[in-house]
Design goal:
about 260 residues, mainly alpha, globular
């Protein structure tokens, strides 16, 4: 664990997973959702699904604290997008055609504009952590697709529970086995964050079960576009020329990937 690791981070991760797990349990109770699954519980697939996502989160965080944030984002998406094409082909025989390839190249180019990678590129430990995180995210997507027939809410509970356990273990190894006292606004933000995390996890399960993982990964990468836009509208942060160019490339890529031949 790097010396620069903030002691408040592991508790924050545990809080996020814990709140999401609590909401998932409450949702199941209130909606009385059916939790029965197929007789084949796909123990191997479920286990890898539960492990890969929190590990991806941890490795990305390690990347952020061992290199520049722009490099962490760049390495994560490079690995995630490229591995989704390779592993999608291996596991699901997904077609890799000209249309998909063009969209992939456009998003990879846009990634360079968003992160201004030409001015700060270097391969260090943080960059490697980012690559590992991206590949683990693709592995998560693979098992999201393979676990068709398993109750989605149950999968989210398993995912958030595993994440909570990982976070607590991290708290132990970073000597931060205590939660900071949050003010009222901090509690509200943490609660909303946990709820949004639950919703996103559930929607990703639906999405990757209904589309190719290479297309799904490209669509998820549109957060590169929405991040600066939200910052512009909510916090009045100005958009740079590079971000505008990158946004245009992402829009073109998404339109292209959804275009019927």
């Amino acid at each position: 664990v790097p010396a620069s690791w903030p002691s408040s981070f592991p508790p924050a991760v545990a809080l996020r997973f814990g709140i999401a797990l609590l909401f998932a349990i409450l949702t199941g109770i209130i909606s009385k959702a059916e939790t029965k699954t197929k007789s084949n519980l796909k123990f191997f697939d479920t286990s890898l699904f539960a492990l890969s996502f929190p590990l991806s989160t941890i490795f990305f965080t390690l990347a952020v604290f061992n290199t520049k944030i722009s490099l962490a984002i760049f390495s994560f998406y490079i690995a995630n997008l490229v591995s989704s094409f390779i592993l999608g082909r291996i596991f699901f025989k997904e077609e890799v055609n000209k249309q998909k390839t063009i969209s992939l190249l456009l998003i990879l180019i846009s990634l360079g504009f968003f992160t201004n990678i030409t001015s700060n590129f270097s391969i260090d430990l943080g960059f490697i952590y980012g690559l590992v995180s991206g590949i683990l995210q693709t592995i998560t997507s693979i098992f999201q697709k393979r676990l068709v027939g398993i109750n989605r809410l149950s999968l989210v509970k398993i995912q958030t529970f595993t994440g909570l356990i990982f976070a607590i273990v991290f708290m132990y190894f970073t000597s931060s086995l205590s939660f900071p006292i949050l003010p009222i606004n901090g509690i509200v933000v943490a609660t909303l964050y946990g709820l949004l995390f639950l919703i996103i996890s559930y929607l990703l399960l639906i999405g990757f079960q209904k589309t190719d993982i290479n297309i799904g990964s490209m669509l998820v990468s549109t957060e590169l576009l929405f991040g600066p836009l939200f910052a512009y509208f909510m916090f009045k942060e100005s958009l740079t020329t590079s971000e505008i160019i990158g946004s245009i490339l992402v829009i073109v890529a998404v339109i292209n990937i959804n275009r019927k031949n």
